[in-house]
Design goal:
Helix content: 40-55%
Largest sheet: 7 strands, mixed
Shape: globular
Order of helices and strands: HEHEHEHHHEHHHEEHHEHEEHHHHHH
CATH topology of the largest domain: D-Maltodextrin-Binding Protein, domain 2
Number of strands: 9
Number of domains: 2
CATH architecture of the largest domain: 3-Layer(aba) Sandwich
Number of helices: 18
CATH superfamily of the largest domain: Periplasmic binding protein-like II
CATH class of the largest domain: Alpha Beta
Distance between the termini: 29 Å
Length: 442
């Protein structure tokens, strides 16, 4: 899932930057481990020159601050389109032996970069950055190992967006559990047959992955030299059966997200919730302008009362190419970019991202204009972000995501069980990994 960004978010994200954030730490380099042979010091003839592939808006402005403070390590930005195409382009460049020194790597694509030996292990250079991130985020760049394959940059913790005014109209409380969500869905349908509490999208595997993470799923794991694939684990089947049951019952819709009909339902108040990620305000502002000031956020409903966990939908890291001859310097820049207060403030202001860094999230203070009725929007979002747990993605996640779309589309058409669709995802993923020569654990 490509991290979704909209110009509306850029205007809303930053209103107050901590004074210390724009202060003096930006030019201080983190302590480095001894350089490896592949990470040479700046040559006498001039500075180390690094190239960085990224799709973050205005990254050139952020990099200019680094370049001014670090004359011996100069970074050049190459703007990319992002998404799956950017991943394929990087893998092609790595295979050809001419990748950039640094690359923006979405979390779900990072394992494929690792499997292709395209990115470097940064543990000797950037391991100290771990304290800057939640455990769930750090796990996304370590793949369950001691190696560090990227520095987290932005993230997409999931929460529940809901129409507060219409919840009041229909007399329903914000659901704290998924059982309460299901009951609320039934109540809404009884009170107004034209209205749905929510919808299940068969076109958005990233959303389903995040909901599975919340339930405790572990789709892939690594044991020694082998991969274990468990997309049909009990947690994922539970999530699938839950949504499949609500669709079959007719109490939630099955229209996909990001379609004209979905936009209309959000805008006219016939769709009341959206379990989504922190980047949701820009989507809602663009597609449901009539709802300004009427939407609010809350933690995702929980599977058991008293729990407090979420999952991720979207987000990316900064990785260093294995072929780079300046890995230490590249890691130094990646660490600065994603942990330094000045850089974090710029990422929010210029790049319109939700920082992965915990202290970077503290830069966000005033609520997005669309959520003018919820002035503690960012404080709530930050608390939710701390509860999000991810999982290890596999080296062929695109195959899995394609299998999701095909299998769940078929399940909706044929009215078959969503558990069968999860099994189809598992079978397609395993078959592809076997075909590609990966060693699989039993």
């Amino acid at each position: 899932m490509r991290t979704r960004r909209f110009s509306a978010v850029a205007a809303a994200l930053l209103t107050a930057v901590l004074a210390a954030g724009c202060g003096g730490s930006g030019s201080e380099a983190p302590q480095q481990a001894p350089q490896s042979a592949a990470s040479s010091a700046p040559a006498a003839s001039g500075p180390v020159k690094l190239t960085y592939w990224t799709w973050v808006p205005n990254m050139d402005k952020i990099v200019a601050v680094w370049n001014k403070a670090h004359p011996d390590i100069q970074v050049t930005v190459s703007k990319q389109a992002g998404g799956d195409d950017a991943s394929a382009k990087f893998l092609t460049a790595a295979k050809a032996g001419n990748p950039p020194d640094l690359v923006q790597a979405e979390y779900q694509h990072l394992p494929s970069f690792v499997a292709a030996d395209a990115v470097a292990d940064l543990s000797q250079y950037a391991g100290q950055a771990k304290a800057e991130f939640s455990e769930g985020l750090w796990n996304l760049v370590t793949l369950g190992t001691d190696a560090v394959y990227g520095i987290p940059q932005d993230s997409g913790p999931m929460m529940l967006y809901y129409r507060a005014d219409l919840f009041d109209k229909y007399g329903i409380a914000v659901p704290k559990t998924w059982d309460e969500y299901a009951q609320a869905a039934r109540t809404v349908r009884k009170k107004d047959p034209k209205v749905y509490l929510g919808t299940f999208s068969s076109k958005d595997p990233g959303s389903f992955a995040g909901l599975a993470q919340q339930a405790g799923a572990q789709w892939w794991s690594i044991s020694g030299e082998s991969w274990k694939v468990a997309i049909n684990d009990p947690a994922t089947v539970k999530v699938a059966d839950y949504w499949g049951g609500l669709v079959k019952e007719g109490v939630i819709d099955d229209m996909p997200y990001f379609t004209p009909e979905w936009n209309k339902a959000l805008n006219d108040g016939t769709l009341l919730t959206w379990p989504s990620a922190v980047w949701g305000p820009g989507v809602l502002e663009a597609n449901a302008p009539k709802g300004k000031g009427k939407w609010a956020i809350a933690p995702l409903p929980q599977w058991s009362a008293g729990e407090n966990v979420s999952g991720f939908w979207g987000g990316s890291s900064t990785a260093v190419a294995a072929a780079s001859t300046h890995q230490a310097q590249a890691a130094q820049f990646a660490t600065w970019l994603n942990t330094d207060p000045e850089a974090l403030a710029l990422l929010v202001k210029e790049g319109a991202i939700y920082p992965a860094s915990t202290k970077g999230q503290g830069v966000l203070t005033e609520a997005p204009a669309y959520f003018s009725g919820q002035q503690d929007f960012w404080q709530q979002a930050n608390r939710i972000a701390a509860t999000a747990r991810g999982f290890t993605f596999g080296p062929n996640v695109l195959v899995t995501y394609d299998a999701f779309k095909n299998a769940f589309d078929k399940a909706l058409q044929n009215k078959s069980t969503f558990a069968d669709a999860v099994k189809a995802m598992q079978d397609a993923t395993v078959a592809d990994m076997q075909k590609s020569g990966f060693q699989l654990a039993q």
